[in-house]
Amino acid sequence: MKINNTFKLIIAIVVSELAGIIGSVFTTPSIAGWYAGIIKPVLNPPAWVFAPVWTTLFVLMGIAAFLVWKKGLERRDVKIALGIFLGQLVLNTLWSIIFFGLHSPSGALIEIVFLWLAILATIIAFAKISKLAAWLLLPYIAWVSFAAYLNFTIWMLN
Predict the structure, then answer these.
(1) Is residue 55 within 8 Å of 20, Cβ to Cβ?
(2) pTM of the model
(3) Distance set, CA 75 to CA 65, 81, 128 (Å)
(4) Where exactly are the structural domains of the chain?
(5) 17-43 burial, b if ≥16 CB within 10 A, otherwise e?
């Protein structure tokens, strides 16, 4: 069955946003509880910033995945790149589970290193197929780099 590009784009964005939705199941209950009570760094953004930033990043991830997917799943490099992409989505969700669900900044700090490396691997794999797809992931790795700083600082302060 051949899927048209509009439907591929919708699927890619929905799959990406689902990672955020799953993560938010663990995040939301902790925002007013555990997270509100811990010491945060000076550069910690207000809580309302995170939802629009992550929503935008997941849309960009979905568009990037679509740009790679539309090159054809029959291509080995496309399958590998999308596999790496899906792996980093799992790691993204896992970070929320560890940090917010398990209340473990130390565990999340270890995990975010693997997430960052997986994002880098995704960017490299995507760049070989679509330069634009790789560029669309740069805000994501920048934000995760900032999140790693926040995670580290929260771990140190608490």
Answers:
(1) yes
(2) 0.95
(3) 14, 10, 12
(4) 5-157
(5) bebbebbbebbeebeeeebeeeeeeee
Q: Does domain 5-157 have CATH number 1.20.1260.100?
A: yes
> Which whole number is the average pLDDT over 110-136?
98
CA distance 158 to 156: 6
pLDDT band at 126 (very low <50, low <70, confident <90, very high): very high
- What whole-number distance in Å separates Cα of residue 80 and Cα of residue 101? 30
pLDDT in tens, 52-75: 999 999 999 999 999 999 999 999
90 φ, ψ to 5°?
-65, -45
Amino acid at 101: G
pLDDT confidence bin for 1, thresholds 50/70/90: low
> CB of 78 within 8 A of CB of 68?
yes
Task: Identify the H or E element spanning 5.
Answer: helix 5-31
Residue type for 28, please? Answer: T
Do the Cβ atoms of 45 and 143 come closer than 8 Å? no
- Taking only the tens place, the pLDDT of each residue in 31-53 is 888 999 999 999 999 989 999 99
The dihedral sign for the CA sequence 94, 95, 97, 98: positive
